[in-house]
Design a protein that fits this description.
The chain is mainly β. Helices cover 1% and strands 42% of the residues. The protein starts with a helix and ends with a strand.
Length: 306
Amino acid sequence: MREELGVFPHNIASSSVVVAGDYVYATTSNGQDWSHLNIPSPMAPCLVVLDKNTGEYVGEESSGISRNLMHCNWSSPGYGEINGNGMVFFGAGDGVCYAFNPKPVPDGDLAILEEVWKFDCVPDKYKMENGEPIKYPAAEGPSELISTPVFYKNRVYIAIGQDPEHGEGVGNLICIDASKKGDITKDGAIWSYDKINRTISTCSIDPETGLLFMSDYSGFVYCLDAETGQEYWVHDMKAHMWGSTLVADGKVFLGDEDGDLVVLAATKEKKVLNEVYFGAPIYSTPVVANGTLYVGTQTHLYAIGK
């Protein structure tokens, strides 16, 4: 990425890839230099496409994301299909969520991902105050997107946030109508929820109940109606959180920086079923597979069965 595309990764933060069909979609982590004032590679792509079988470079986004970076690009891409048409979703370092056609098309010497729609996830009130721009990374100001876009029933759910080193600040969780096209910032939001704080976490949705669960860096867990955005409850973990919620077996699992793993009922009424102290920070997201719960702490990996 550095040699061939001129990418300048900030903090060399890595993201997960998405594989769809014969393609692999990956974030480059292109960003600012250590001065936090200069973007060394404003023309480098933030999302690239490779051939799944050979690793050959196939194409890239050409939406000009790198020219408007607040800090970097750490979000992992997402994927979904609407009426049989695939889309790649990307939460970018300019605070905008993008949807691209998954198959790159020729454009001069390159092949590019055609932009289907884009949505600016940063509310105007976080951008300006008393006629003056609010400077990044002020607690009351704008943020980029670090969490992964979640696709569910033709909607995309994503929240804004910043590098945890920047501390706490205001946030926004958006439900976007993924069936629209173009710049849909004005009419593409089905609902938004600005009571959440900055987050680097990704939401989870229980398909049985339609409930959405989200955590923020400040230490709060939120239960909302995925359809309407209605808030049902908020739980305070009293510690910073880096990982995301996991919904399984009618329960919500989540760890925090103090090393506590909480188990909440995945219901409209808040019920704390259990809280376990693991003795080391839990930065990752719990995983369930084959009847076993896996919890990774800063020092150990635990496999918890019956």
